[in-house]
Amino acid sequence: MNKRKAVNLTSTVSPQKSGHKPLRETKKELPFPLNLYQSAVGKKWVMAITGLMLVGFVIGHMVGNLKMYLGVLEHDGSAAYDMDIYAEFLRNLLVPILPEGVFLWILRGGLLTAVILHIHSFYSLTRLNIASGRSYESKQDWLASNFASRSMRYSGIIVLAYIIFHILDLTVGATSDEFVHGAVQSNVVNSLSNPVIAGFYIVANILLCVHIFHGIFSVFQSLGVNNPNINRMKRGIATAVSGLILVGNVSFPVAILAGAVEYNECDPKLSVAEQVEENCVNSSGHDSDSDDDSHSESEGY
Questions:
Q1: What is the DSSP letter of 38?
Q2: DSSP H or E stretch at residue 73
Q3: DSSP assignment, residue 13?
Q4: Mean pLDDT of all residues belonging to the chain
Q5: Contact at 8 Å (CB) between 250 and 203?
Q6: pTM
Q7: What's 49-132+147-295's CATH class?
Q8: What is the SS3 assignment for 294?
Q9: Cα–Cα distance between 191 and 210 in angstroms, integer?
Q10: Are 183 and 84 spatial neighbours (Cβ–Cβ below 8 Å)?
């Protein structure tokens, strides 16, 4: 009798007869290595690695843009702004193995992929965190986690909006009639001489560095390095990297608005040495560049 009751009780809680759906539907497992991304750990690794890639790009981009402070130099028998020389170098990466500008577009494609994966992994992890109904031990823990999450979310959205504007402004040239393809120094000075654009640039970089600070601090945890004894070291690294980027990037609009960085055109009759001394260039070269498909982008910035 007891045995029959046990059987009946077991049958009453059978999932097939209860009519209740499982709490979480099992997703079809993707082939390796895509199946790694289906887990929360895999998403954290993707977000951490792509974040490090993007931080590396930001640092390299900032270092390259420091060339605007060098002004006019002699290059291949003519005078040119070092920023324009740098842009030409980027266009000629791996030439003649690849046609001019091809490797640069490959790098851009890699960066775009990293941005998409970074955003998607953050979005997916946020949804998983909400669905898990995670609770915090104290109000202080909730406030700290909520502030970090909000700062990463909103700073990320604003930085993404600025990146789109930045590309339209200084790569495509869709925001200004004064844009000249290939004339990076001229384009940068013309753009950041506008106080509104310069102010937006400064605010966006402040938020970018807030984003980077929290990202670098949390990347250790995402990669499994979560020892409380190294929190001071993690905070120091995050502060140093984000502070370096902030000082470097904010210095560009400030220097242009202050007149420390300029773009000057000079008399075509001046010799190369005189152009270098006067910190000016013969603008006739840019006119031909604007009609050349190989200078269709302002790659240097």
A1: G
A2: strand 72-75
A3: T
A4: 83
A5: no
A6: 0.80
A7: mainly alpha
A8: helix
A9: 24
A10: yes
| Strand, coil or helix: 22 | coil
The count of residues in the chain is 301
DSSP per-residue string spanning 225-257: ---GGGHHHHHHHHHHHHHHHHHHHHHHHHHHH
State the amino acid at position 89 in one-letter form: F
Which residues lie below 8 Å from residue 266, measured CB to CB, with a gap of 6+? 274, 275, 278, 280, 281, 282
End-to-end CA distance of the chain: 83
- What confidence tens digit (pLDDT) does each residue in 119-171 have? 999 899 888 877 766 554 444 444 444 565 667 888 888 889 999 999 999 98
CA distance 28 to 34: 12
CA distance 61 to 111: 12
Contact between 205 and 250 under an 8 Å Cβ cutoff? The reply is yes
259 pLDDT above the threshold of 50: yes
Per-residue pLDDT tens over the stretch 268-295: 899 999 999 999 998 764 544 444 444 4
Q: Which residues have CB under 8 Å from 152's CB, separation 6+?
A: 122, 211, 214, 215
